Every structure is written in structure tokens, then in C-alpha cells.
UniProtKB/TrEMBL annotation, chain A:
Protein name per UniProt: E3 ubiquitin-protein ligase AMFR-like
Taxonomic path: Eukaryota, Metazoa, Ecdysozoa, Arthropoda, Chelicerata
UniProt subcellular location: Membrane
Composition bias, Basic and acidic residues: 678-689
PROSITE patterns: CUE, ZF_RING_2
Residue ranges of domain CUE in the record: 472-514
Species for this entry: Limulus polyphemus
Disordered: annotated span: 529-562, 576-613, 633-689
Pfam families: CUE (PF02845), TPR_SYVN1_N (PF25563), zf-RING_2 (PF13639)
Pathway(s) this gene product operates in, as recorded in its UniProt entry: Protein modification; protein ubiquitination
UniProtKB/TrEMBL annotation, chain B:
UniProt source species: Limulus polyphemus (Atlantic horseshoe crab)
Entry keywords, A to Z: ATP-binding, Nucleotide-binding, Transferase, Ubl conjugation pathway
Protein name: Ubiquitin-conjugating enzyme E2 G2
Family the UniProt entry places it in: Belongs to the ubiquitin-conjugating enzyme family.
Gene3D superfamilies (alphabetical): Ubiquitin Conjugating Enzyme (3.10.110.10)
InterPro entries: Ub_conjugating_enzyme, UBC, UBQ-conjugating_AS, UBQ-conjugating_enzyme/RWD
PANTHER family in UniProt: UBIQUITIN-CONJUGATING ENZYME E2
Gene: LOC106472418
Length: 689, 168
């Protein structure tokens, strides 16, 4: 890209540039003053004045000759200034210094805004700005000289001026976007920062809309094409800025409100979709317009524009594809995974496994796992398995019948559930596949059609399915075996093949339905596969008291964490008044924290305290590890001397080490000496990192 | 969305602080960026990494529980499943879609129910039992198979180095 080459360009520092441009400006002003004070020039110039603004000048001239009042003295200065300015505009050398000065001012304003709003720019922000800047310069160069084919200098200057202002706004909004995205990574940002950023965003918005008004005025005189060219960039800035502002407000709303508002994600999704698509479409039309209007089909410029068009088209297509995926997932979820009823929710006190938040309502997967509607949707957009148990959910394939694995009862179940709805989603699939093979026939191919390609993809999907499932089974079996090492792996596999969920198998084991040799009960389980899943998913609730204290303790923990969560939520996600308050009591809190350094320590309210506690815990870990290492290494060296083959008896030597720590008091005393020497290094090491 | 990621990370941070697993400390170094954590991992006992404390950084994506974080040791490491630049290559850190090595099933890969704690625990078990099929560091894998004594010497040096001690 052009940015790469232009990046190497050595740029002077801002101070030097400002100094040079001020110097140049003063030189040219001095030159202008010299020339204009020359009576001979005045004679020539007045003639020209006469043509332009004759009458006005005449009166001023007359008045000057008539009297020497103070007011007229002012008038004289004014006249002098006017003379100089007019001279400078006419003189090519002077006009360049003026333009240069204008750019210098723009840069200074930019710098000022940066200092005021952003402070120090981060590296990625700088990189973005640089890329964006050079890209903008490159494309506008192409536009002015390639598309518009501007011949006259003054036109070039006008277009340059226009694009400079727009580019400036573009860069500022890009900077705002980057900074906003960065700020949203942090749980606490001072309100003042938000205010400044939002103020800048609204300034950008206001200036872009006033530029729009300017566009209209110019367009009335220069014609529709010029208007369209001018307004495109303007609209882009406006849409992008609006998008950032909208996201910003959503973010602020989010931070200050608790809980998951299910509908919200839908609104946010659609507003994002609209903004993104609008920006892309405007850009696309703008480029298309350039290509068609410019009569430049076989030039370099057309090539560049075509490439940009291709890129934009690809982006739009990608976005639409994503949207289709979204719609398909939503439809699939609505038809196949019912929202849970209230009593089900009461029985299930676990949090959503995706966001770890409390669930007021949830969707239930066929494997018996619950998730928030929005959490599940965003996961299914990228993957088609249950996050917890990895059961394949066939969102992307088809739900109805035809699944290759005979024992895959869940898929059958799923198919039965989604049979009515299954067919429309199926055709939806086909259209997306079909759609992207024929770029031109975009609107025709919206209609479902049954072509060869579709069956092809179906075959592919079928072939992939069994492989995934066996390894999935493997993994699940290993998971179960970790908990019950006495169970043989093949038995667990067998059971998993029927239950398809780790939890169900575990329950089977706990309820002693699954014992070390296959019992008749278990046999029955495998034969009535389709029923057993429904059964056991209900078992989830009916057998809950039997399912040992593990689940109970789980419940206690989760309910405790939800109540804690509210507290921590209040403190952490509220804005800065709270932070400043807690940082004032920080010192007390810190000493408390330092004195009570246990194994598990408390979770502080204030971020500063958390940071310092974390640093402290790390330091402690290092110290402890070092102490321990030196203790064991003392014994290890002794052991090395006695042990002829240290490396082969590796595991046994570590056992020795442990025994040495616990049993040999002389060694631990010896370690005190060892320990005292390198202690000086410890803080050094920590600060170094 | 950054917001749900933030809440989730905060919850995980809290959990890891209140009851940390043995030999693991993790949290954001600077809370200005909650998506960049540092973790300290103690070498598991009974392995050649025993005694060492190895720092690593975790970078979370904005859509965090949906995509896995990236993990990279910031100290020198020598291990079959750790790239020479410190990046960790374990299946739990790979998104379900991608399969760079082509040998792992999607069941072993990232899912939103995984957590920082689980990642760090599997890194510990990776330290204890290297998987020499994955060639993140081919030299280390070869040495692990063929010359265990030399491997142990190197790791012992790394352990000492991680503790800020002079090499033995
Ligand atoms: Zn959720
Ligand atoms: Zn599940």
C-alpha cells in the first residue's frame, strides 16, 4: 500500500515546521509591505482595484486625502492591510506561504486537541492515524488528478482545502474511535475523560454537518456531480461519528446499569448493522460514481478505484453474510431451544457458563445446559456445539434426519423438534452458499434454488461429523475418568454414547446405575436411547437430592457469588466518585492488606489497592519459591554427591526432596544461611520485571 | 462486547484472588487495561520445572469468553509445547475453528466455559507432561525424547534464572 512507501518520508519536527512557516509568512508579509509601500505599485494596483471594487476604494481614497482624523487613521491601517492581503493573494509566492501557514495552523489545532482530549497517543493509535492519513492523501490525490482531472491551480487549491478539513475530521473521529475502544477495556475511567471525548465527538459532528451545508451551497452553483463528490466524504464522517457516539452511549448505559436486558442486544446489533452498512454503501456508491463519471475506464486511477470497489463490495458481502448467519442462528434457537420456564429457573441456580452472570431467563439446549439467550446466540454464531459439553448442535448443517451416526439420539431428538422449522433454515443455508458463487445475480439468487453445490456441501458436513464425535467422546470420557479413576474407560465411553453428556454419565455413576461391569439397567439404557436422554434430562431435577453434596456446595457457592456480585458490581462499575473515595482510604487498606497476606486474600474495592496487592502476592510467591528452592537445592547437591545416577531416578529424587524439607531440621537451619545471602536480590528481581 | 468481557474478567479475577489454586497468581498488572494480565506459574512439583516461578502474560480479546486469550511466557522457556518466543501451544487456547497443527479435535479446544484458571492449570499439566507430538519447539521436543539429562540441565538453569539466582 502507499502508506508503506510514504512512511519512510522524513518529517521535520512540529516546532521546526512551525518556526519555518512563521518565518516564511513574515518574510512574505515583509515583502508584501515593501512592495505595496512602493508608490509605483500603488498606481498599478489602484487601477486593478478600480476594476474590482472601484467605488469603495475611491471613497476611502477620497477620505484619506480629505482629513487625518483618528478614525481615518484606523481606516488607513485597515486599507493598508487590505492592500497587503490583496497583494499576497495575487502574488504566487506569497499565496503558497499563506497556504502553508494555514496547514501549519491546522496541525497546531490538531496537536492542541490531542493534548487536550487524548494526552499521549498510544502506539496503535499513532499507527492507525498514520495509515489512515496516507491512505486518505493517496485516494484524494487519485481523485483530484485522476478522476476530476483538475487543470487550474485555484481549483486544485480549493479541492485540497476541502479534503484537508475533511481528512482532519476523519482522523479525529478515528482517534476518538480508537480511544473509546481502549477506554471500554477498563472498568473505571474518570467521568471527565468521557465528557471530553464526547464533546470532541459532538464538535466533529457539528462541523461535519456545517460542511454539509457548505456542500449544498457549492452544489447549487457547481452542479449535482460536484455536490455528490463533496457530500460523500461529509456523509462518511457524519455516519462514522454518529456510530461512535451511539456505541459510546450504549457503553456508558451498560456500565451504569446492571443485569442483562435481553432485548438490548438485539437493538444494539441492528443499530450497528445499520451504521456499518450505511457507511459501506455510501463509500461504495461514491466510488462507483467516480468510476462512471470520470470517463477513466482505462487509466491508473480506474484501476485503483476498481480495487477499492472490490474491497468495499467484499466488505458489504461479508457483513451481509454475517447477518444471514445471525438470522439463521436466531431462527434456529427460537425454533429448537425453548426459553426456560420459571420453575425450571428456580430449580437451576447456576450462573450462565458463558458470562458467569446470574440468569433470570435462559434457553435450554437439548443436552440440558442453560445459557442466556444473547450469550448463546453470540456463541452459536461462531460455533455449533454446546459450550459446556461440546454436543454438536447442527446449527450450520441440517437438523432434520439423515444424521450418519445411528446412536446419535440427540440429533434425532433435535431433528424431531425442528422438523417443521428445519426446512426453511435448510433453504436459507443453500441460498447463502449459492449466493456467493454468483456475484452478479445477487438479487435473483435470493430465491431458494436446489443446485449441485448444495448437496456437495451437505456431503462434506456429513463426512466431518463422525470424526468430531468420536474424539469428542474420547475427551468426555477422559473427563469422567478423571473424577472416577476406578471406572474403566470403555465403560464410560459406552455410557457416554447413550447419554452424550458428561454430567449425565456422572450421575449414572453416582446413582450406581453404572458400575464396574455392565449391569442390566445399563443395558436397558443403551437400547432405549431416544427415551433415555429425555428421561435423564428430567433426572437432572428429580434426582438432584441424590446427586451428592457436590452439587449442593456448588449451589451454595453460586448463590454466594451472586450476592457478592451485586456488591462488587456497585463498587467496581460505578464511576469515579467512588474510586477517589476509596483511594483516599487506600493507605489504611494497603497496610491491612499487607498484614493479612494469607493464601487466599480478599478482593479489594479499589483498583489501586488490587494492583498493589497483586504485586505483593507475586513478590511473596517469588520469595517463597526461592526459599524453598534453596532449601531443596541444598539437599539436592548433597544427594547428587551420594547418588551415582541422578537423572534416571528423577521422580524418586523429587520425593527425596520433599522428604528432606519436612524431616531434616538441620537442613532447614542450613537453608537459613543460604537464604540470607540472595535475599538482597529478591526485591531487585521483582522490580526489574 | 467489551462490557460482558469486562464483567467476566472481573469475576474471574475475583475468584482467582479469593481462592487461588496452588502455585498460580494471575491478574491485570495495570487495571487501566483489564484485558492484559500477568500470571505467575510455579513449576509443578516432581518435574524438571519444580521450584521455578515463570511469568507469562495473557492477552484477552474484546469478545473474551467467546474467543480464547493469547498466552506468552515472558521469561526464557525451553519446552516442547512452548515456542521459542514464549507463546504457549496448547489445544485449550485454540479457537474451535482453527487448527494450526491439524491433530487436535474441537472438543479439546476453547469454549466459553473454560477460564483463566483452567488455562493455567492445563499449562501446569503441560509443564509436567509435555506433548512431544506438537512441534512448537522442535529442539526441545527432540531433547525431551532423546536426551532427558541435557533437558533437565537446561530447565534447571531456567528455574534458577526465573528465581533471579546465579546459574549453578
Ligand atoms: Zn450469559
Ligand atoms: Zn451441553
Amino acid at each position: 500500500m502507499p502508506a508503506v512507501f510514504l512512511d519512510r518520508l522524513p518529517l521535520p519536527s512540529l516546532q521546526a515546521y512551525t518556526a519555518v512557516s512563521v518565518l516564511l509568512l513574515s518574510c512574505s508579509v515583509y515583502y508584501a509591505v515593501q512592495i505595496t509601500s512602493d508608490p509605483e505599485w500603488k498606481l498599478n494596483a489602484t487601477l486593478e482595484f478600480e476594476n474590482n471594487e472601484g467605488a469603495k476604494n475611491q471613497t476611502i481614497e477620497n477620505r484619506r486625502e480629505l482629513s487625518f482624523d483618528e478614525v481615518l487613521l484606523e481606516n488607513k491601517i485597515f486599507r493598508r492591510l487590505l492592500e497587503i492581503v490583496i497583494f499576497m493573494i495575487q502574488e504566487p509566492l506569497c499565496i503558497w506561504t499563506l497556504i502553508n501557514m494555514a496547514y501549519c495552523c491546522l496541525i497546531l489545532v490538531g496537536k492542541f486537541i490531542q493534548k487536550l482530549v487524548f494526552g499521549e497517543l498510544r502506539v496503535s493509535e499513532q499507527q492507525h492515524i498514520k495509515d489512515k492519513f496516507w491512505n486518505f492523501v493517496f485516494y484524494k490525490f487519485i481523485f483530484i488528478f485522476g478522476v476530476m482531472n483538475v487543470q487550474f491551480m485555484d481549483e486544485v487549491v480549493l479541492w485540497c482545502g476541502w479534503f484537508s478539513v475533511l481528512g482532519f475530521l476523519h482522523l479525529l473521529s478515528q482517534l476518538c474511535k480508537d480511544r473509546f475502544e481502549y477506554l471500554s477495556l477498563s472498568p473505571m475511567t474518570s467521568r471527565w475523560t468521557h465528557v471530553r471525548l464526547l464533546a470532541l465527538l459532538s464538535v466533529i459532528l457539528i462541523s461535519s454537518s456545517s460542511l454539509f451545508v457548505l456542500c449544498v451551497f457549492v452544489g447549487l452553483q457547481a452542479g449535482l456531480n460536484t455536490f455528490a463528490f463533496m457530500v460523500a466524504e461529509c456523509a462518511l464522517v457524519t455516519v462514522r461519528t454518529l456510530y461512535i457516539i451511539a456505541r459510546y452511549f450504549i457503553h456508558l448505559w451498560d456500565i451504569n446499569h446492571e443485569g442483562v436486558w435481553e432485548k438490548r442486544t438485539t437493538y444494539v446489533y441492528y443499530s450497528e448493522l445499520t451504521f456499518e452498512l450505511t457507511a459501506l454503501v455510501v463509500d461504495f456508491i461514491h466510488h462507483l460514481h467516480m468510476l462512471l463519471w470520470g470517463n477513466i475506464f482505462l487509466s491508473m486511477a480506474s484501476l485503483v478505484i476498481c480495487m477499492q470497489l472490490r474491497y468495499l463490495f467484499h466488505e458489504i458481502r461479508h457483513r451481509l453474510k454475517k447477518h444471514k448467519n445471525y438470522l439463521r442462528v436466531v431462527r434456529h434457537m427460537e425454533s429448537n431451544y425453548p426459553m426456560t420456564s420459571l420453575e425450571e429457573m428456580e430449580n437451576n441456580s447456576e450462573n450462565c457458563a458463558i458470562c458467569w452472570d446470574y440468569m433470570e431467563s435462559a434457553r435450554k439446549l437439548p443436552c440440558g445446559h442453560f445459557f442466556h439467550n444473547s450469550c448463546l446466540r453470540s456463541w452459536l454464531e461462531q460455533d455449533s456445539s454446546c459450550p459446556t459439553c461440546r454436543m454438536s448442535l447442527a446449527v450450520h448443517g441440517d437438523g432434520s434426519g439423515g444424521t450418519p451416526t445411528g446412536d446419535d439420539n440427540h440429533n434425532n431428538l433435535l431433528g424431531a423438534l425442528g422438523r417443521q422449522e428445519g426446512e426453511p433454515t435448510h433453504t436459507g443455508n443453500q441460498t447463502t452458499n449459492h449466493f456467493f458463487h454468483f456475484d452478479g445475480s445477487r438479487y435473483v439468487s435470493w430465491f431458494p434454488s436446489f443446485s449441485v453445490e448444495v448437496t456437495h456441501t451437505n456431503l462434506l458436513g456429513n463426512r466431518q461429523l463422525p470424526a468430531v464425535q468420536t474424539s469428542q467422546l474420547d475427551n468426555m470420557a477422559r473427563q469422567v475418568q478423571q473424577m472416577f479413576p476406578h471406572m474403566p474407560l470403555n465403560l464410560i465411553m459406552e455410557d457416554l454414547r447413550s447419554t452424550h453428556a458428561v454430567e449425565l454419565t456422572i450421575e449414572n455413576i453416582l446413582d450406581e446405575r453404572l458400575v464396574s461391569h455392565p449391569s442390566p439397567m445399563f443395558q436397558a439404557n443403551t437400547t432405549h436411547t431416544a427415551i433415555s436422554t429425555q428421561d435423564s434430562s428430567q433426572d437432572n431435577y428429580t434426582t438432584q437430592p441424590i446427586a451428592t453434596n457436590e452439587r449442593e456446595s456448588d449451589q451454595r457457592e453460586s448463590s454466594a457469588s451472586t450476592s457478592d456480585w451485586k456488591f462488587f458490581e456497585d463498587t467496581v462499575f460505578s464511576l469515579d466518585e467512588d474510586t477517589s473515595e476509596s483511594s483516599s482510604e487506600d493507605n489504611g487498606g494497603l497496610t491491612r492488606a499487607l498484614s493479612s497476606m494469607g493464601h487466599g486474600c480478599r478482593f479489594s474495592k479499589s483498583p489501586q489497592e488490587r494492583e498493589s496487592m497483586l504485586a505483593h502476592r507475586k513478590e511473596e510467591l517469588f520469595k517463597a519459591a526461592k526459599r524453598k528452592y534453596l532449601a531443596t537445592s541444598g539437599s539436592r547437591t548433597a544427594e547428587l554427591a551420594s547418588d551415582p545416577e541422578p537423572s534416571t531416578s528423577y521422580s524418586s529424587s523429587s520425593v527425596y526432596d520433599e522428604m528432606n524439607i519436612f524431616q531434616d531440621p538441620s537442613n532447614s537451619r542450613g537453608d537459613g544461611q543460604w537464604y540470607s545471602i540472595p535475599e538482597h536480590h529478591a526485591p531487585e528481581h521483582v522490580t526489574e520485571r | 462486547m467489551a462490557r460482558s468481557a469486562l464483567r467476566r474478567l472481573m469475576a474471574e479475577y475475583k475468584q482467582l484472588t479469593l481462592n487461588p489454586p496452588e502455585g498460580i497468581i494471575a491478574g491485570p498488572v495495570c487495571e487501566e487495561n483489564f484485558f492484559e494480565w500477568e500470571a505467575l506459574i510455579m513449576g509443578p512439583e516432581g518435574t524438571c520445572f519444580e521450584g521455578g516461578v515463570f511469568p507469562a502474560k495473557l492477552i484477552f480479546p474484546p469478545d473474551y469468553p467467546l474467543s480464547p486469550p493469547k498466552m506468552q511466557f515472558t521469561c526464557e522457556m525451553f519446552h516442547p509445547n512452548i515456542y521459542p518466543d514464549g507463546r504457549v501451544c496448547i489445544s485449550i487456547l485454540h479457537a474451535p475453528g482453527e487448527d494450526p497443527m491439524g491433530y487436535e479435535s474441537s472438543a479439546e479446544r476453547w469454549s466459553p466455559v473454560q477460564s483463566v484458571e483452567k488455562i493455567l492449570l492445563s499449562v501446569i499439566s503441560m509443564l509436567a507432561e509435555p506433548n512431544d507430538e506438537s512441534g512448537a519447539n522442535v529442539d526441545a521436543a527432540k531433547m525431551w525424547r532423546e536426551d532427558r539429562e541435557q533437558f533437565n540441565k537446561i530447565t534447571d538453569r531456567l528455574v534458577r534464572k526465573s528465581l533471579g539466582l546465579a546459574p549453578a
